[in-house]
Amino acid sequence: MPAPRRIVAGLTLLLFATTACGSESKSEAASLELWTRSTPASAEVYKKVIAAYTAKTGVKVTYVPIYENFENKIQEAAAARDLPDVVINDVSLLGTGLSQGLITPVDRAAVAGAADTLDRAWNQARAADGKYYGIPFSTQAVATFIRKDWREKLGRDVPTTWAELDALARAFQNDDPDGNGKDDTYGMLVPASTERGYTAWWASSYLWQGGGDFLTESGGKFTPAIDQPKSVEAVKWMRNLFCEDKVVVPGALTLITDDAHPFFETGKAGIYLTGPWMMGRFDKSLGKDRYEVIPSPAGPAGQGVLGEGENIYLMAGSKLGQQQKQLAEFLISPEGQRIGMNTDQPNPVVRLPVNTTVDVVAERKDERWATIKEIYRDNGRLFPQVPNWTPLRQQASETLNSIFANCGADVQAELTRLAGSFRTELAKQKAG
């Protein structure tokens, strides 16, 4: 998921090229320090992967799982000149880490197992300069989760278009799908807080499905596309969910994902655009037979959705370069990937394997993962690969959140102002 915009000023690659990540004792003991952004449940899966790595290589790993304020913890470690050796995090770290000199370049050809690593997955580790600054570890694409029992009770078909999705959301909102005789259900769950850029994270898939985009690229230079006609129409369609159809759960504009999930699993909302990592939780809390996972219904331009994942970052300043690389190579090996997938248990840290010799359906024993794989393969998209997407994403989140909150706002004017902010930021990054 997205990262916040807080940045420790003045951090440079030179600083970490001349300063060890940790103490001398860490180097002498050849003990790697690994950080991941993980819930406690996911951390248990990482511990299994690490135990297998240590058993195979003899290299000890000090593992630090962090969930709350992960990005701030990275910045604090950077300011203290005490970065971990390796970090596994989503693609949001790429731009910030590169701009601050926190991560090191990767020679893809020198990585054992790279030939068996999905070529498309490497794109999420490639920066605007065309070089790689991470090694892909896991991929995924978002999908549409629907209360199947509600849909069938109301005699509705699986939606395949925006119009059908909108109609289903209104039916869930108004037609008492849970049959309790109360007006207590909502059509769509939307985590649209600006925190960590959630608004743009949620809106991106619908923006692309409408034929719009945040930016367009030509010859390595980017120009705003958020104020163009198809982008404007897509944003208007999204705002209608809040303002005209009014099918979105209350409080959505301040809702983060952790607080959003209970709306779906406790029977308050019937449609949720989210990631496959939620299936294990919902299977347990709601019941596998009560909801379905489908490709996002097509907008005017098709079914494009956010498709990204997690990278392994080799942090700058480490004195354990060989061990950094060795750990990464184990993580992308068939053994590391299979352990990370957690077989048929919930909380996999490898969602779609990046190793092409590993079959997600055979390992997970769940055909829904075949659906996720197809969505990623056919319709998954990355955010624009500018030098640092984080500030642009935050600007987009704040503008979109404001538009969804103000039903009388001039959408074209607001997006035109956002395009101007994009141009200013792109100029700062020398990408415009």
Automatic annotation (TrEMBL):
Q: Which residue stretches, if any, does this entry annotate as coiled coil?
A: none
Q: Which UniProt keywords apply?
A: Cell membrane, Lipoprotein, Membrane, Palmitate, Signal
* InterPro entries, A to Z: Bact_solute-bd_prot1, SBP
- Pfam families given in the database record: SBP_bac_1
Q: Which residues form the signal peptide?
A: 1-22
The name on file for this protein is Sugar ABC transporter substrate-binding protein
